[in-house]
Amino acid sequence: MYNEEEVLPALVSRLRPVLAGLGVEHEVVAVDDGSTDRTAELLAAFRLGWPQLRVIGLRRNSGHQAALTAGLDRAVGAYVVSIDADLQDPPEKIPDMLELARAESLDIVYGIRADRASDTGFKRWTAGLYYRLVRRLAGPSVPAQAGDFRLLSRAAVDALKALPDQQRVYRLLVPWLGFPSGQVTYERAPRPAGQSKYPLGRMIRLAVDSVTGFSAAPLRIATWLGGFAFLVCLGLMVYTLSAHAFQHTVPGWTSLFIGVLFIGAVQLVCVGLLGEYVGRIYTAVQNRPTYFIGHDTAAGGQDTAVGAGTGAGDGTGTGTGNGNGNGTGAGASVPSPAGPPTGSEDAAARVAQGLRQGS
Questions:
Q1: How far does Cα 21 stand from its chain's mean position?
Q2: pLDDT in tens, 282-334
Q3: Which pLDDT belongs to residue 79?
Q4: Would you state the pLDDT for residue 198?
C-alpha cells in the first residue's frame, strides 16, 4: 500500500471479520511501499489489537509489482490471497475463493470484475483495450478483467518465486504457469476514501512491460515495417526510372522530402522497439533486487536487504495493498489465534482516529 491512511480504517473493519469467520489460522501481511503519509503509524496502531497483522515496510517506493513480490516472497501459508487496499475488490469474496479452491483442488482462483460501472468510461475503455491486447499476444489463458485480486496455492507461490523475471507482471505470469484455476466474479466498487495513485503514465508502463515481457511481436512489427518501407522504396524507384525514361523529370523535392521522412520515421520506430528489449536485457544483466525490506514486524523490526521468505504452513493468508497506487501485499498463515475483533481493536481504532485528526 502507498499513502493509504484514509482508507485503512475501512479496510481493517471489513477484512478482519471476514478472516475471523474462516475458522482457520491466518496472518495478514501488509506491505507498506514506502508511504510518505501516516500509513505506517496507522498500521502500527492497528497491530496493537490485531495480533495476526504483520507489517513489512519497504525502504523506498518500489512499485506495485515489486511490492506484490515482496509480499509473496514472505508469505508461508498453504493459500495466499493478494488484495488491494482501496477496497474496490471486496474482501468478502475471500471465503468463496478458498471454498472453490478446496472443493475443486485448484491452485489459482481469479477475482473477475464482472461489473466495472464504478470506473470512468476512459478507464473501462483502456482496460478493455489492454486485456484484448495481452490476450492476443500472451494467449487466451489470460483471464479478461482479472487484476491482482487472486488466491494462490503454496505450489503456485513457490513456482512464481522460482521464476527469474526482473520486471514482473503477475496478471500474465500467473496464467502462464498453467496451474488449474477457477474464477469468482464480483462487482467492482468505487473507492471509499483516498485517491487513485495509478495515473495514465503508470498504466502505459504496465502495458509496455506486459507486451515486451511476454511477446516478441513488437520486433516482428518492426520487421514488417521495414519490409513495407522496402516495397515503398521499390515503387518509388520504378516511378522515378519510368519518369526519367519518358523524360517527365521534374524537380521532385516534395516526393523526396516525403520519402526521407517516411524512411526516417520507420527507422526511429524500429530503433525504439529494439531499445525496449535491450533495456530489459540490461536490467536482467544488472540483476538488482526489485525491493529492499526496511522492517518486518515478524523479524523483530530488524532491517533486511531483500525479501526471500520461504517455508510452509496451514491456513489461509491474505494481503493488503493498493492496486491503484504502488504496492500490494500477500499473506501467510502462522500459529496465531483467529478470534473475533476485541476491545483492543477499538483502542487501536481510537489511536488511528487520533493520528488522522492530528494530520
A1: 28
A2: 777 777 788 899 999 987 644 444 543 333 333 445 544 443 444 444 443 43
A3: 96
A4: 66
DSSP state of 299: G
| Greater model confidence, 104 or 240 | 104
> What are the b/e assignments for 297-331, b being 16+ CB within 10 Å?
bbeeeeebeebebeeebebbbbbbbbbbbbbbbbb
CA angle at residue 50 from 45 to 52, to 5 degrees? 125
Q: Distance between terminal CA atoms of the chain?
A: 19
CA geometry: angle 346, 349, 352, nearest 5 deg:
155
β-pairing, 79-82 vs 146-153, is antiparallel
Beta-carbon count within 10 A of 229 CB? 17
The Cα–Cα gap between 40 and 301 comes to 13
Q: How far, in Å, CA of 165 to CA of 168, rounded?
A: 6
CB-based contacts of 353, cutoff 8 Å, min separation 6: 9
Predicted TM-score (pTM) of this structure = 0.70
Ordered DSSP codes for 316-354:
EEEEE--TTSS--------S-------HHHHHHHHHHHH
Q: At residue 233, does pLDDT exceed 60?
A: yes
Distance CA 89, CA 93 (A): 8
- CB within 8 Å of 206: residues ≥ 6 apart: 130, 169
- What percent of the chain is predicted at pLDDT more than 90? 38
C-alpha cell recorded at residue 273: 522497439
Query: How many whole angstroms separate alpha carbon 171 and alpha carbon 124?
Result: 17
